[in-house]
Amino acid sequence: MRLILLLLGALLLFNVSAGGLLAKQALPKVEVSNKGQLTITAKNDVKYQDWSSTMLTGKARLVLHIASKKSANDINLEAMQAVTDAKLDPHYFQTTTIVNGSDSVWGTAKFIRKLLEERTLQEPDARFVLDNRGRVRKAWDLQTGDSAILIVDANNQLLWHKEGKLDVLDIEGILEIIRAEITRLTKASGTS
Fold it and tell me: Is residue 63 within a helix (H) or strand (E), and if so which, with residue range?
């Protein structure tokens, strides 16, 4: 079974060539200064700070990039729930959700901000980024109006990428890739 999953993971790596992103290369550097990463203050409020793709280091990460539309948000709910249900060690793994605020339905910006602020307070181990100018989508050459999932290692090297809905095999594959990276990080830290 393990061999099958490893082969599946290897086959899934072919997905990383879409959109100009290449496996085992760092994600193209991009900075978001209009809104940016949501953080929790000492007073339990949410504030925004500049965000850079260079911050995607130190842990294995699943990066969810979505258009600021309900239809895009719903595309990979099953995949995100599977990652949550896997209860991956937050010392070695983190999700980062980047919402493309420039790709939204007119008049929904305030609602989207409020929703992201609530989720930031509910999920303090996750990271949320609001990209009002669509810089990440452009830098990473992602499709508009869609959902993309990227898996990066602790050095911000792309391990896997797919745009659109993940199927059951994709979900099993990303969990295997993430677990392998967590195992590698655990061994490297000497805490295995």
Answer: strand 60-68
Residue 32 has pLDDT above 90, yes or no: yes
Would you say 179 and 88 are in contact if contact means Cβ atoms under 8 Å apart? yes
* Tokens of residue 130, six digits: 């609001």
The conformation of residue 166, written as its DSSP 8-state character, comes to -
- Residue 153: both structure tokens together: 């290692």
Residue type, 38: L
Distance CA 8, CA 114 (A): 39
Return d(Cα 43, Cα 114) in angstroms, integer: 17
pLDDT at 57: 95
Mean pLDDT score, 12-29: 67
Total residue count of the chain as it appears in this document:
192
pLDDT of 84 above 90: yes
Residue in this structure with the two tokens 């899934």, named with its chain if needed: 12
Question: What is the predicted pLDDT for the residue at 69?
Answer: 77
Q: In what order do the strands lie in the sheet with 93-104?
A: 46-52, 31-40, 127-131, 93-104, 60-68, 147-152, 158-163
How many of the other CB atoms lie within 10 Å of CB of 35?
20
Q: Which residues neighbour 30 within 8 Å (Cβ) at sequence distance 6 or greater?
A: 52, 53, 135, 136, 138, 139, 140
pTM: 0.86
Distance separating alpha carbons of residues 116 and 130, to the nearest angstrom: 8
**Which domains, ranges and CATH numbers included, belong to the chain?**
2-189 (3.40.30.10)
27 near 159, Cβ under 8 Å? no
